[in-house]
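Suppose you are handed only these lines of text.
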Amino acid sequence: MQKQSLAGRVIRLQADFYYVDTPQGVVTCHMRGRLKRGIGWTDIVAVGDNVNITLQSEGSGMIEDVIPRKNALVRLDPRPRGVYQQVLLANPDQVVLVFACAQPEPHLRMLDRFLVVCEKQGIPILIVANKTDLVGVDQARQMFAMYPPIGYPLLLASAKTGYGLAELEQTFRGRISALAGPSGAGKSSLLNAIHPLLDLKVGEISQFTQRGRHTTVVRQMYALEGGGYVADMPGLRSLALWDTQPEELDGYFPELRPLVSQCQFNNCAHQTEPGCAVRRAVEEGQVHPERYESYLRLRFGERGDWDE
Ligand code: GDP
Ligand code: ZN
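From them, the structure of the protein bound to zinc ion can be written out as follows.
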């Protein structure tokens, strides 16, 4: 008898089990042995992957193919036999970076670092400034004012008062979103406020991501009522800049990118070189000094500067 085939999306993985969301509901699957052969440097199947499965007689499924990813949020994991590319989320449509306006104070150097990571991985970004109730909407907008002009959309929100939540829900709709941000910023509170059915414990996301790194980790994304999925991501800290070459860093700052070719030296590091168009733009107020500071710290600073 011909086995029934279904297309679906991997929404959870736990040890050797893959939970695949299909038009017939969620099917627990294993991966066909031949898919595992020959690849040792990255995850063959990850949360967010589109797959084709066949239904087995006992109601479970078998993953037969993985559709090539359009992009992925990847963490490089150095191992004895080389660097392993761990896929945190396949096919994300956006990364939603949640920072609190207060409690805790927003750490914009950390935000900038994460923006660079997303730029490098080619993933669109939405910045959410949560807890606007603590500082007022005007001050909240001001705190993050440097971002919209350089192309990063900003959404002001409060999980407590509901401010901005309709808009936030709209951006989740029909998309795969990765939710990231420092612990305490309000990620679980925002998700709960939008989708009470998820019923995440406040604080749960951060605890979840601090668990071990390898096989014991459960990775998942939540299916949203309005369509779309949202996945919680590990703390920003663990997404270092790994293989970024110092010379390519200015390319991941959208406001510096067009200036670089105007520097006097084509290998300008934009620090002390004469005729530097970047420094001139900072002095003339076209580039925000704090963003320039972030660039310098990422390029020349101690790695530890970023692990706060
Ligand atoms: P997470 O670690 O990012 O998931 O943050 P949580 O959702 O666990 O929230 C951390 C703390 O901030 C909790 O005590 C929440 O009640 C509180 N919180 C979350 N959102 C808001 C908000 O919009 N306003 C205020 N005042 N507190 C909030
Ligand atoms: Zn320069």
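What can we learn from it? Residues 174 and 228 are 4 Å apart (CA to CA). The helical segments are 33-36, 108-121, 137-143, 165-172, 187-194, 204-210, 277-283, 289-300.
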